[in-house]
Amino acid sequence: MEVLEAVCKILEVDPLTVEVNYSFVSSRKIHLLNQKFRQVDKATDVLSFPDGDINPETNRRFMGDVLICRKVARRQAKEIGHSLTREITFLQVHGTLHLFGYDHIDPNDEIKMFGLQRKIMALLS
After folding, report:
1. Apex 44 CA angle, 49 and 22, nearest 5
2. Hey, is 122 helix, strand or coil?
3. Residue 63: phi, psi to the nearest 5?
4. What's the pTM value of the predicted model, to 2 decimals?
5. Which residue of 15, 53, 97, 124 has the smallest Cβ count within 10 Å?
């Protein structure tokens, strides 16, 4: 099962109605984007850029872009002690949930978002 399909299953969204673009970027690029859009002066693991427009070619809602830094993901996977594949999958899930409007700034929102992440990761395991 693909990440978007798993997210949609848990969120009860028809996966045929939405699109997400997943891309890998360099640590330099994600650092610059993190600085520009979040005012955080360092490289990060994942950034999400929501959209929401309808793609006229597919008639699906383009939810947005999820950018992942493989270098940061590799370091985190090593620190946590799991595979790079698992870390990248987790970052895709995390970023996709942001595109669907979930966040983790507020403690209650964090509980909800992280609970969804666990359910989705279990589905993908």
Report:
1. 40
2. helix
3. -70, -30
4. 0.93
5. 53
68-108 tens-digit pLDDT: 999 999 999 999 999 999 999 999 999 999 999 999 988 88
Q: Cα dihedral angle (53, 55, 58, 62), rounded to 10 degrees?
A: -50
pLDDT at position 114 over 70: yes
Q: For residues 34 and 43, what is the distance between their CA atoms, to the nearest angstrom? A: 7
Strand, helix or coil for residue 13: coil
Report the distance separating Cα 65 and Cα 49, nearest Å: 5
Question: What angle is formed at CA 84 by the lines to CA 19 and CA 41, rounded to 5 degrees?
Answer: 75
